[in-house]
Structure formats: structure tokens, C-alpha cells
């Protein structure tokens, strides 16, 4: 497969929705000149839990999971990232080691902005700094909600919520039906339960006509039913 050419920040399709939406043309030009552009195969690690951050990552194409290892050795997926999303910013701002790893869920193209360039941008552009603070607050809120739901909701309800999260995160504009290829291990890591339990409840959803499956691909047929299930214990 031919490696894609490095995209320009000035013409990036995500420049109006990303963290850099308030950058001037000059700032975008500088980002383009200093960033790196890397391709990751499915399963490759983009950054490792426990490493020191050297910059931030912007997903240009593909899907990424952010996960950490629990004390029992099981993976816990704490975030899903899509095209246009930014990764690794919390540890960089906190000047701390990564508390989770980012792994490509499929083949991904990712831009890397060095810490020195990113910090200069924050110093000189207060709007980017404000947008970053909002991203941090949103990330904290989503993490808190996830842990509350893990503690309060039964597995069936959490699986319904996880499927809706995948749909919300990765469904492309204009798609009438949402399908995603996802391993049962990854799905169980999002739900916070054993793979066998996810397989059992997914089979129930299939028997009830809520979803269909083909290999690793799950197609959501009745999102409104998943919504009702996920909200039963709220």
C-alpha cells in the first residue's frame, strides 16, 4: 500500500473542528513544517503507558483506543478516538508520564506535534489554550461518567451503552446504518467485563433483532432499543 503524503495543516479537513481551529494561517504553516506524519498498522502502539510525552498526536485517519492495564492484568479501554481527535495532551500539560497507551484499532495515519512547538502555540494563542482547557474538562467528565456507570449499571446495560458509544464516535455523516469491525476483546474492555459475558449478551441482542453480526463486524439495527436498555438504571 502506498504511504500517503504528509497532509498540510492549512488544508486539513479537520482544521475547523480540531484543537487548532483558532490558529492563524502563519501558525498552521509552522505546525505543518515542524510536525511528523506517521502510519500505524492495526495493533501498533502510538504511545506507551509509563513513557514521558514528547508532544501531542492528531488522528488524521483510522480509529484509536486509549487503554490502561488494570491491577488484574486486564485491559481497560478508557477512550476511543477518531479522525480529527487529539491524543496525549493531558500528560503533556501535566508534565507527567502517560497513564494509558494509545493503540491503532485499524490502520491509522497520525500527525505528531513536538512539545516545544505546541507549548509555543499555547503561549502565543490564548484561544487555543482556552479550547485545550475545555477539552481537559470534557475528558475528566467523561472519565468520571464511565466509572460511575461501571459501578452502577449491570453488564447488559453497559454493553448497550458501549455500542451506542461506538456509533456516536465512529459513525460517518450520512450513514443510515452503523457497522463496525471490533474484536470481542476490545468490546469487553470497553464494557469492563469478561469476553465470554460480552459474547453472551451480544448473542441475546442478535436474537432480539437489535444487532446483527458477521465475524467481528457488529451492525446496529435498532439504536433506539439500545438507548432504552442503556438508560434503564439512570
Task: Explain what you see.
This protein is an alpha+beta fold. Helices cover 42% and strands 23% of the residues. It contains eight helices and eleven strands. It has a four-stranded antiparallel sheet. Strands 2-7-4-5 form a four-stranded antiparallel sheet. A three-stranded antiparallel sheet has the order 9-11-10. Strand 4 (64-69) and strand 5 (75-81) form a beta hairpin. Helix 5 (155-170) crosses helix 8 (223-230).
Q: How many β-strand runs?
A: 11
- Which band does the percent of strand residues land in? 15-25%
Strand and helix order: HEEEEEEHEEHHHEHHEEH
Structural class: alpha+beta
Query: Helicity range of the residues?
Result: 40-55%
Instruction: State the assembly state of the protein chains.
Output: single chain
* Major sheet: arrangement of strands: 1-8-3-6
Largest sheet: 4 strands, antiparallel
Rounded average pLDDT? 90
Helix count equals 8
Radius of gyration: 19 Å
Low-confidence stretches: none
Dominant shape: globular
Distance between the termini: 47 Å
List keywords for this structure.
234 residues, alpha+beta, 4-stranded antiparallel beta sheet, 8 helices, 11 strands, 42% helix, globular
Brief characterization of the structure:
The chain has 234 residues and is an alpha+beta fold. Helix content is 42%, strand content 23%.
Draw up the topology in text.
Elements: H1 25-34, E1 36-40, E2 45-47, E3 55-61, E4 64-69, E5 75-81, E6 86-87, H2 89-94, E7 101-104, E8 108-114, H3 115-124, H4 126-152, H5 155-170, E9 178-181, H6 184-191, H7 195-207, E10 211-214, E11 217-220, H8 223-230
